């Protein structure tokens, strides 16, 4: 029966792993596709895709035309976007069309109707329903037509603007379209934008030498991992420094990474609503970007050029970059933090493909306390393991490698040695056993809650560990419940209690319910479901948030498990009289 249970558990684990893989694949595919579904309300203002690359400077290979040059309130005008160039690609994938006041291009005007709902959809920008049109998928398109309806309070002239994307790196932003004017009104001169409107177009130089930790704590503030490392001599050093220069702050960032290194300014120790800066490797150069993360999501790159004196360096797998940023920025930079405040600092690194960043490879390094960016120089410290997760690991290890093993040994091997000694009306071995087991359950429950407090919910990236952990916690809670129903030692029902236990183990075709009873009773008698427990702990110590040193952390835990098994074996042999101890 137990072997059957083990097989079922193995099958369950395989199924759960497959489910996790499918879930992660769905999340990953959503991340890679980005805004292929066309829900691009985030770009309504500057019409810039969140691709993290500069717009193309080539001549746009498309045309946008209107079937009328004059309008009256309520008129319907057909607008056509189509490919024009015979060179290069003969299609586009994404688009965004808006109509704006020609005299004030920040004001959206009128609404649209769809002609081809299969490839186009209406967007709500600035709380105006239907004020823009975008694509519905990433399929290849050669033409799209929409109807624009002039409002009753239409301005004297309206200009159509379009953003078109042929690929992730190849797109044109806010290209000017035709201007339509009310009858009798001369159209204003058309405004031309070029390919760089709304994009970060800083020209970066190349660093001639590596950064150094010289001056950390005296001339500049530094955050380093490992603590005290020097990026000039240690290629494994993750390094961030900053110092005030007049009305701006100079930042230096360095670290070994396959795709990018980054840091963030945060008002707390949780990822989300943070001001982020990334140095992203793209072939043999580095792009330096400002971004914002609203949660545990992909960063949204800034459309404003706020970084100055940018420079970068690539050497031996290490990415280095530096830039300067004004302490106070204009109000239109909504998601940029003022540098005259105190923040926690995050440092992270990871992979990138064609300039697209992936989730960080390790738990981010988080400064121990908030620091003033423009304050006196400090040599900062940080940790990659959050305090709540450290407590989680500590409570679970104490409970399941210390108190529970002591409680099991107390009940199984000290019962005959302390038959008559009592404390508070109960035998000594039983009081100690009960105290240790209650402590185990309490530590388990507290440790179980802490990851949810840290993550703010269920973690989708912890593998099967949380699922097995839930099983262990459930069984740990059930054990004292079963103990409450256990009759007193001198009760007549005690024999029936033990007989039901024996009968349960002899039933081979009782279905899931009988198997559950078997498991619960077996776990109660043995104090732990050793298989689930060991697997759960070994999976837990490799969680990114704990950041335990490998491989010796695995060796230490394995030694603890071996010690428990050997101690149990020696005491069992002694109890059966084969190994006299202390005689």
Name the descriptors:
single chain, about 575 residues, alpha+beta, Immunoglobulin-like, 3 domains, 9-stranded antiparallel sheet, 7-stranded mixed sheet, 8 helices, 29 strands, elongated, disordered N terminus
Structural write-up:
- With 583 residues, the protein is of the alpha+beta class.
- It has three domains: 41-182, Sandwich (Immunoglobulin-like), CATH 2.60.40.4060; 205-383, Immunoglobulin-like (Sandwich), CATH 2.60.40.1210; 387-485 and 517-576.
- 30% of the residues lie in helices and 30% in strands.
- It has eight helices and 29 strands.
- α3 (428-455) runs antiparallel to α4, α4 crosses α6 (511-526) and α4 runs antiparallel to α7.
| Average pLDDT, all residues | 77
Q: Helix- and strand-based class?
A: alpha+beta
CATH architecture of the largest domain: Sandwich
Per DSSP E runs of 2 or more residues, the count of β-strands stands at 29
Rounded to an integer in angstroms, the radius of gyration calculated over CA atoms is: 33 Å
Considering the protein shown, what is the CATH homologous superfamily of the largest domain?
Cellobiose dehydrogenase, cytochrome domain
Low-pLDDT stretches are 1-10, 20-34, 190-202, 494-528
The main sheet comes to: 9 strands, antiparallel
The CATH topology of the largest domain is given as Immunoglobulin-like
The structural domain count equals 3
Query: Kindly, what is the distance between the CA atoms of the first and last residues, rounded to a whole number of angstroms?
Result: 39 Å
Q: Into which percent range does the helicity of residues fall? A: 25-40%
Please give the count of helices.
8
Q: Which CATH class of the largest domain?
A: Mainly Beta
The general outline is elongated
Report strand %: 25-35%
